[in-house]
Design goal:
By secondary structure, the chain is mainly α. It contains 16 helices and six strands.
Length: 408
Amino acid sequence: MNVRRSAAALAAIGVLAAAAPATAAGASPSPKVSVPAGLFGTADPTYDGVWRQSLALLAQHTLGYKPGAAAVGWLVGQQCDKGGFAAFRADTAKPCEGKGGAQPDTNSTAAAVQALQALGGHGTEVRKALVWLSTLQNKDGGWGYTPGSPSDTNSTSVVVGAFAAVGQDLAKLRLGKGTPYDLLSAQALKCTADGGGALAYQPDKKGKLVANADATAAGVLGALGKGFVVRPGKARDKAPACTAAGKATPGRLADNASAYLAGAVAATGHLKSALPGAKDQPDYGNTADTVVALAADGWTAQAKKPYAWLEKNAVPWARQSGPAAYAQLILAAHAVGADPRDFGGTDLVQALNKLGPAPQQAAKPATGSREKSDKDSGSRVWWIAGVCVVVVAGIGLLLGGRRKKRQP
C-alpha cells in the first residue's frame, strides 16, 4: 500500500522505485496547500488526499459507523468529469487533465470506488469511475498507475479490488489479450528463484523479476479478487509453502505469495525497508498489509505474529503518518478478528475519528466489502462492466461517446 500511496510523489521528484516505501507524512500541512474542510488529516494532501480519505471512510464503515457527511461529500467532490479521481484537486471548479489540471490515476480512483461502493448511495459516481478504469486496462490485462503507463502489480490489484466491490468476476475482466490474473501471474517469481512465490512490482530494465513485499501483499488480494476490507479466510492446518504442482490457478498464486510473506515475517514479526542511502528499518505499512493478505488467504496463524508486532510498535508510526496509517491498522485488526479499540492499549478508532469529521452515528458492523444496501448501484455497474468485457470490438466507440457527453 505504501508504493501505491506515494507513487505520484516519488515520480514528481524523479526517484520512483518500486521497492521504496513511503516516508511518514508530516504532522503539519504545507504552507502552499491549505487543507480543506471535510478531509481527514492535517498533512499536505497533494499526493494522498483521496487515498487517505478513502481508507479512513472504509475503516469507519467497516467498524459499523456512518462517516460524517462532510467527509463523504469531500471525496465525492474530488471526482473528475470523466470519472477518474486524482490524488488531490485543490480547485474542483477547474477541469482535470490538460495543462495545469489535476491528473487522475488508477490507484486514487480504485480506492475511492471501494469506499463509495461500501457506503452505498453513490451508484453514479461508482459507475463513472469503473467505466473510466475500464478504458485504461492494458493488453496484458493489468493497469499502470497513470493512463498509458505499463502495468504493475500494485495498481492492477487495487483496481481488481474496485471491480470486486461490485461483484465483477476477475476472470471475465478482459479488454485486451489478458486478464488481471494473467498480469499477476506474469509478475510471480518461480518457487526455485530467489524470493520464490513473491511478486515483483514490475520487471526491471533487463526484464528480471525482483521480489517486492508490498507488491506481493497486494498481489495476494488481487489474485483472490478482494479489496482492502477482508475477513479471515478459512484457517489452514499447515504452514504455507511455495509449490509449482498442479494447475496454475489464482489460488495457487495467492498461496505461493503468502508463503513468501509468511517467511519474510517469521523471524522478527515485521518486514524491513530501506530508502536509498538509509539503513534498514521496520516497514510498518507493508507489515500491516501482510497481515491482511495472510488473513485473507486463510493463514491466520501466520498473520498473528506480525499483528502482535504491530500492536507493540506501530502506534508512534500511525501517530506521525496520519489517517491512512490508522486505517491500515484498523483493517489489519479486522482481518484477524481483533479489537482495534484495544490495539496494544491504544484505541485506533478514537484516534482516527479525531482526525476528521466525526461519524454521524453508529450502525451495524459491515459484513463485507460489497454492500447490499446499494443494489441499484451494483446492478448498473455490473451492466457497464459486462459491456466493457464482452463488446471488446465496440468498446472504444461506446465509451468514447459517453466521455464526450460528460465533458463540460
